[in-house]
Every structure is written in structure tokens, then in C-alpha cells.
């Protein structure tokens, strides 16, 4: 009772000498690094929520930093304007009487307040 040899199946790997003769090269395989390792929907949602929270926090930090920068610039600008105005009144005081300079200063402040309304 001699049984017939079974034909080779598609799943059986045939190994032997390579046809092109490059026996030192590794055999090629399909490149699919994450073929069966897909994440669950909940895990993806969690990651999206974490990313959104991080972006929101970064945006808030940038806004705070920008507000602080603008505040510093505003204070610096006001100081410079006050310094220039003080120097101008000092130059006027050298030429005119002190009471007249004070009247001019009050009038200019009134005009400035009316303009800002």
C-alpha cells in the first residue's frame, strides 16, 4: 500500500536554492507594520480629546502671553508720552509765567478728554 505523494498546497512554503542565485539576501516579506493592530474607536476618541485639550491650553497660554506683551507696550507708550509732555511744559515754563503754563495745561487736558469721548 503505497500512498501517492500529496501535491504541494498554496500555504506550504517552498524553500530551496533561489533562482537568481542571491542566497545571501534575505527573503522579502509584505511591508505592513500595523496590519492587525488597529486601535479601538474609544481609544481614538480619547486621543482626539486629549489633543484638543492640549491645543486649547496652548491657545490660552499664547493669548495670556500676548495680553501681557500688549499691556507692557501700553504702559511704556504712556510713560513716553507723559515724559514728552512734561518736557514740553518745562520748556514753556522757561519762557512764560507759571500760572499761564498751568492754564494751558488744564485747557489741553480738557480738549484731550473731549476728543476721547
UniProtKB/TrEMBL annotation:
Coiled coil: none annotated. GO terms for biological process: rRNA processing. It is found in: Nucleus, Nucleolus. Keywords: Coiled coil, Nucleus, Ribosome biogenesis, rRNA processing. InterPro entries: Cgr1-like (IPR005579). It comes from the Eukaryota. Its main location: nucleus. Residues 1-42, 55-74 are annotated as: Disordered. One of its GO terms (cellular component) is nucleolus. Belongs to the CGR1 family. Involved in nucleolar integrity and required for processing of the pre-rRNA for the 60S ribosome subunit. This is rRNA-processing protein. It comes from Tuber aestivum.
Amino acid at each position: 500500500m503505497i500512498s501517492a505523494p500529496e501535491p504541494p498546497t498554496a500555504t506550504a512554503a517552498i524553500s530551496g536554492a533561489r533562482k537568481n542565485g542571491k542566497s545571501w539576501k534575505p527573503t522579502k516579506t509584505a511591508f505592513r507594520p500595523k496590519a492587525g493592530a488597529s486601535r479601538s474607536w474609544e481609544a481614538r476618541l480619547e486621543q482626539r480629546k486629549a489633543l484638543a485639550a492640549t491645543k486649547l491650553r496652548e491657545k490660552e497660554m499664547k493669548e495670556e502671553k500676548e495680553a501681557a506683551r500688549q499691556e507692557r507696550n501700553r504702559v511704556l507708550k504712556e510713560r513716553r508720552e507723559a515724559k514728552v509732555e512734561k518736557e514740553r511744559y518745562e520748556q514753556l515754563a522757561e519762557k512764560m509765567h507759571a500760572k499761564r503754563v498751568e492754564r494751558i495745561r488744564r485747557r489741553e487736558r480738557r480738549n484731550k478728554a473731549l476728543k476721547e469721548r
